[in-house]
Design goal:
single chain; mainly beta; AOC barrel-like; eight-stranded antiparallel barrel; 44% strand; elongated; binds 2-acetamido-2-deoxy-beta-D-glucopyranose
Length: 192
């Protein structure tokens, strides 16, 4: 009888001890992983080219000014403080009707008092092929009057986890009468 109790007690202690270990495990703050355990093998470099349609005019505008600073003197300054929210189409060719490969969602704001210099904060959300659903995050300076503007790619999601790189923007066309622009983007990304 006594033997049986001690066996039971031992089992109870063992169960308690294991659940204690499990509890400790589930509260663990950090641990080391191998890169392979996340499927990260060889880092590769990819180049993407697409066209960004900044449509500011008409009923189907995709770039909408949401903030205009009261101190902004629109005739004299660079629009410092203006914020525009975008959900711009990204297409494979420069025509608006060409195949959609993704959208640029985010915002740009005039961040320079004395020249045209935008701060771009946006995600490219791709819909093309295996990249459907993957995103790249861009945060950088866009001096729109320069022929080529370079912006850092600070990360990504999906197929672009752990990515980094840069995007080069050059204006393909600008409609002086309504403000719509088409911008060619060449994007160089290191990713797994
Ligand atoms: C705006 O979008 C609507 C709905 O997709 C479409 O019917 C209309 O033709 C578009 N208008 C312009 C000016 O593109
Ligand atoms: C805005 O700038 C214009 C051109 O420099 C100037 O004539 C005007 O007085 C300024 N307006 C204000 C409210 O500062
Ligand atoms: C992209 O993924 C969405 C959601 O999973 C799906 O509805 C859509 O059809 C896909 N598009 C393409 C072009 O594969
Ligand atoms: C530029 O905008 C004007 C006014 O909306 C439009 O009539 C014209 O077709 C546009 N030009 C081009 C090349 O798209």
């Amino acid at each position: 009888m006594a033997k049986l109790i001690s066996k039971k007690t031992a089992i109870i202690f063992a169960v308690l001890f294991i659940s204690f270990l499990v509890t400790v495990e589930s509260h663990q703050f950090s641990r080391k992983l191998s890169q392979r355990s996340l499927g990260l093998r060889k880092e590769k470099l990819s180049h993407f080219r697409f066209y960004f349609h900044d449509i500011v005019s008409g009923p189907n505008a995709t770039a909408i000014r949401i903030v205009e600073a009261t101190r902004t003197n629109r005739t004299a300054t660079t629009g410092f403080g203006d914020i525009t929210m975008i959900d711009n189409p990204l297409t494979i060719g420069p025509e608006r009707t060409s195949r959609l490969v993704g959208r640029a969602q985010g915002m740009y704001t005039s961040a320079s008092l004395n020249e045209m210099g935008l701060l771009m904060v946006m995600n490219y959300v791709f819909v093309e092929g295996k990249y459907n659903g993957s995103t790249l995050s861009i945060m950088g300076r866009n001096p729109v009057m320069s022929p080529v503007r370079e912006m850092p790619i600070v990360g990504g999601s999906g197929l672009f986890r752990f990515s980094r790189g840069y995007a080069q923007a050059s204006t393909h066309s600008f409609n002086m009468s309504n403000g719509d622009a088409v911008v060619e983007f060449n994007v160089y990304v290191l990713h797994y």
